[in-house]
Design brief:
heterodimer; A: mainly beta; Rieske Iron-sulfur Protein; 4-stranded antiparallel beta sheet; 3-stranded antiparallel beta sheet; globular; B: 332 residues; alpha+beta; Sulfite Reductase Hemoprotein, domain 2; Sulfite Reductase Hemoprotein, domain 1
Chain lengths: 126, 332
């Protein structure tokens, strides 16, 4: 897996969304956990913070070793910041900014999520 | 635990915030040790490997390890593992715990692989869990001309006794049929060595990063007594150790050390022996194979899919060949 794949993931701000992709019904996502969706050639990890009623999305690719695994990571929070811990080496990333919270890895791309009629939509700009 | 049985309630009643990757698996382990619930019930508080009941490897695929109690396996079972590994194109290797690890399974392949293994009479080996791994044995008096007692029979019995019990960290056992110690029982969390007049019982050993020989807990006791002492030792460890603390550092930090432990488990100095016996028996009696539970429960089985909106699988995973088998492509 090369850097070129990593470079296909760029954060999308809510104001820049041009496509709300209808991903899957909310029942497909574990409570207080994540699952992976496919959009075009992209793998996107979507997280259901059931306790707070909030949803987040990011690239499924961990920038550390370039494996498609972030959706299987444990979620939680650190200083009020929602985060995911990569299942391979426990590198943690903010699900708001994408920033690597416990190291100096590149930030991951994050995407807006909305819920309508029990369906999960992820926002893209292309 | 005030009768609390789920993570959300625990956070609401005694915690703050939304938890994290450190406290979730620690709490999951405590729930499991108290109630012996499998990792399937609260899957998102489990550490990586427990969530999918498999060991994640460096390319995001998983390895599969059925239980081979005491390292004893029939030719028919060996052929079944060979057939299944070949069918799913898995890399196979003999582990240090006398069993067979099959590597390179994609997430969606885990349930069908386990369905076939279970149909052949296998059950989960909990290689992914903070729980009993294996009880290693030498061939003992069954075959060995030096053997003082049946180490394989004892290892098989004790591995089935403790299988599935989740604990602060993984724990391993060993049974040797004589003092030549081919099973390396003193390098394990608990070990039995056959001697003239009974079994010597050792506890608190491990290999790993800080090797430590186990210490003698009791000498020349019969099998039932040996099991009783180790039952109490394990239960006492489960109830008092820090998360992710193995028995060796736990025993080192225990005030009074091995003498204190002997007093607790042999002389019942704390008056808790009956309770420890009861709690251990409750764990033993409530064992279920969590992989059987997973393959037979549609909601659990559904978790084993790479995408929730597509039948496709991860096209990012690449293998290269290695000595007639395969391995993950090098990291970029």
């Amino acid at each position: 897996m090369s850097l070129s794949v990593l470079n296909t993931y760029e954060s999308v701000a809510a104001s820049d969304v041009t496509v709300w992709f209808k991903a899957a019904p909310i029942s497909k996502f574990p409570k207080n956990g994540g699952a992976c969706i496919k959009y075009k050639d992209k793998q996107i990890a979507v997280f259901n913070f059931t306790r707070e009623g909030k949803w987040y999305a990011c690239q499924n690719l961990c920038p550390h070793k370039m494996e498609m695994v972030l959706s299987r990571g444990m979620i939680g929070e650190e200083n009020m910041e929602p985060k995911v811990a990569c299942p391979l080496h426990k590198n943690t990333f903010s699900l708001k900014t994408g920033e690597n919270l416990n190291g100096s890895l590149d930030a991951i791309a994050t995407y807006p999520v909305k819920i309508e009629s029990d369906f999960v939509y992820v926002g893209f700009s292309e | 635990m005030k009768g609390i049985t789920d993570y959300d309630t625990l956070l609401d009643e005694v915690g703050t915030g939304n938890g994290c990757e450190v406290c979730k698996p620690a709490v999951a382990a405590i729930f499991a040790s108290l109630y012996n619930e499998t990792a399937n019930r609260q899957e998102t508080i489990q550490d990586t490997n427990d969530r999918y009941l498999a060991n994640i490897q460096r390319n995001g695929t998983y390895s599969v390890v059925p239980r081979v109690a005491g390292g004893e396996i029939t030719p028919k079972q060996l052929m079944a593992i060979g057939r299944i590994a070949q069918k799913y194109d898995l890399y196979t290797k003999i582990t240090g715990g006398q069993r067979i690890d099959m590597f390179g399974a994609k997430l969606h392949e885990l349930p069908p692989i386990w369905e076939e293994l279970i149909a052949e009479g296998f059950e989960t080996g909990q290689a992914y869990g903070k729980s009993l791994r294996t009880v290693k044995s030498c061939v003992g008096s069954t075959w060995c001309r030096y053997g003082m007692d049946e180490s394989v029979s004892f290892a098989v019995e004790i591995e089935h006794r403790y299988k599935g019990i989740r604990s602060p960290h993984k724990f391993k056992g060993g049974v040797s049929g004589c003092i030549r110690e081919c099973a390396e029982a003193r390098g394990k969390d608990f070990g039995f060595i056959a001697v003239e007049g009974g079994w010597n019982v050792y506890v608190g050993g491990n290999g790993g990063a800080t090797p430590k020989h186990a210490l003698l807990l009791a000498e020349k006791v019969d099998k039932e007594t040996a099991i009783k002492y180790v039952d109490r030792f394990i239960m006492f460890y489960i109830k008092t150790a820090q998360p992710l603390q193995r028995t060796a550092p736990w025993l080192e930090k225990l005030e009074g050390g091995i003498t204190y432990l002997q007093n607790v488990v042999i002389n019942d100095s704390l008056g808790i022996a009956k309770q420890l016996d009861y709690e251990m028996q409750a764990l033993v009696d409530s064992y279920v194979c969590e992989w059987k539970e997973a393959v037979e429960t549609p909601e659990i089985r559904e978790r084993y899919t790479h995408f929730v909106n597509s039948e496709e699988t991860d096209n990012n995973i690449e293998f290269v060949s290695l000595r007639d088998q395969k391995m993950p492509k090098e990291w970029a």
